[in-house]
Write a structure and sequence with these properties.
Largest sheet: 4 strands, parallel
CATH topology of the largest domain: Rossmann fold
CATH class of the largest domain: Alpha Beta
Number of strands: 8
Mean pLDDT: 95
Structural class: alpha/beta
Radius of gyration: 17 Å
Order of helices and strands: EHEHEHEHEHEHHEHHEH
Strand order of the largest sheet: 2-1-3-4
Low-confidence stretches: none
Distance between the termini: 8 Å
Number of domains: 2
CATH architecture of the largest domain: 3-Layer(aba) Sandwich
Strand content: 5-15%
Helix content: 40-55%
């Protein structure tokens, strides 16, 4: 089997969730044999934002990839045959990450866009940190209308995402995710992309597994396992 390299830690809880999903998928598709029924996996937990930041913590403009992420990708590429990134923003710089890793890098955006195309059930809803451009740019080519939450609702969701990264989410933050999801549903969205790996964690497994939702991290975990054993 090929070794999966996980470039994670940008969202610590989301990385842990991804690792658990890899093991769960493995249990379904591989014969059980002690600890051998899983693909080998190496995870790097980054402890900084994926892009350079100003002193006040806001991203620098224009967005600039933090070179430490490329250094981590290079190191991970020495160990792994297949790399995944458990965060969406770094995919804005995917070509540079692939060049640094010198290894196959599976895109969470690609597997998500493919899934949306298979469902072909417009109109499409999109939730994420702000409006995740890494998805919108791709999806706008296929969809005339993308339903998003209004600015004040997005601000509350953004704060909820950041608090979950810190492990300090409360019921108020969970409600922010639920309210944003309810809004895009009420506006007619029939397929909704959860374009931030923290949103499924805010909603919980039961809610985030609804038939109208697309969970990119779940798609990435399945595809990573299938490629690792192919």
């Amino acid at each position: 089997m090929r070794t999966i390299g996980v470039l994670g830690g940008i969202g610590p809880q989301a990385t842990l969730d991804f690792e658990a999903r890899v093991h769960e998928v493995s249990r379904r598709v591989l014969p059980p044999r002690l600890n051998e029924g899983y693909p080998p996996m190496v995870t790097v937990y980054l402890r900084h934002a994926p892009v350079l930041q100003q002193p006040d913590g806001t991203p620098s403009e224009p967005l600039t990839l933090d070179p430490r992420l490329l250094e981590a990708a290079e190191r991970l590429g020495r160990w792994a045959d297949l790399i995944v990134i458990v965060s969406n923003t770094p995919h804005l710089f995917l070509d540079r990450i692939r060049e640094a890793a010198r290894s196959e890098v599976l895109s969470i955006v690609d597997v998500t866009v493919d899934e949306v195309g298979r469902r072909a059930d417009p109109p499409l809803g999109l939730l994420g940190l702000g409006i995740p451009e890494v998805y919108r740019e791709r999806l706008e080519h296929e969809h005339d209308e993308i339903v998003v939450a209004p600015p004040e609702m997005r601000d509350r969701l953004d704060d909820a995402i950041l608090r979950l990264m810190e492990g300090r989410e409360t019921a108020e933050h969970v409600n922010a995710a639920r309210e944003a999801l309810a809004f895009v549903r009420e506006r007619g969205a029939r397929t909704i992309v959860l374009g931030c790996t923290e949103i499924p964690l805010l909603l919980g497994e039961s809610e985030s597994s609804a038939d109208d939702l697309v969970n990119p991290a779940a798609l990435l975990a399945r595809e990573a396992v299938l490629r690792a054993i192919s």
